[in-house]
Design brief:
Elements (H helix, E strand, L loop, with lengths): L30 E3 L8 E3 L2 H12 L3 E6 L3 E4 L9 E4 L2 E5 L4 E6 L8 H17 L2 E5 L1 H24 L1
Helix pairs in contact: 1-3
Length: 162
């Protein structure tokens, strides 16, 4: 005779409803931007990077640019064996042959120790490869944003004339 025994509490599997996973939200404006001057779509991680992309597309002197395609090795300590990777935000090629690396960084992050190490490595790499290096921070982004607003206003004015 088979008698069913009640399960002890520890033997019971508690059935719980699966909680829906919260979508990870970022405080940064992210997305994809397609440029005629860049060979692949750009998955930007901040609104500032998107503003830079649009500005580079408007600049007739820029013939091509690359987003996060250049990696420069750096060390955080001189005795460190492992080389870390600094992925450059933008490498820009101009019609006059000039090459420029641009790092997009907020003012309050420019003097961070890691940023300083990356900047030193980039400056060393640039001096060896005949490339210029610039950090575009708050003021430069504001200027680019103002240029974009003026460009859009002119575009709307031209459309209204037609």
């Amino acid at each position: 005779m088979n008698v069913l025994k009640p399960l002890k509490y520890k033997d019971r599997k508690l059935k719980t409803k699966a909680k829906p996973k919260k979508k990870k939200t970022s405080r940064y404006h992210t997305g994809t931007y397609t440029s005629p001057k860049c060979k692949k779509p750009i998955n930007f991680r901040s609104g500032w990077e998107e503003i830079v992309c649009k500005a580079l597309d408007r600049d007739p002197n820029v013939i091509e640019y690359f987003y996060e395609d250049l990696i420069i090795g750096y060390k955080t300590k001189p005795t460190q064996v492992k080389v870390k990777k600094y992925i450059v935000d933008f490498l820009i090629l101009f019609a006059n042959g000039k090459r420029l690396i641009v790092e997009v960084k907020a003012d309050n992050k420019i003097n961070h120790p890691i940023t300083l190490k990356k900047t030193a490595a980039a400056l060393e790499w640039c001096s060896k490869n005949n490339v210029e290096y610039e950090i575009w921070s708050n003021q430069k982004i504001k200027e680019l944003l103002q240029e974009e607003k003026q460009y859009l206003q002119q575009k709307v004015a031209k459309q209204n004339q037609i």
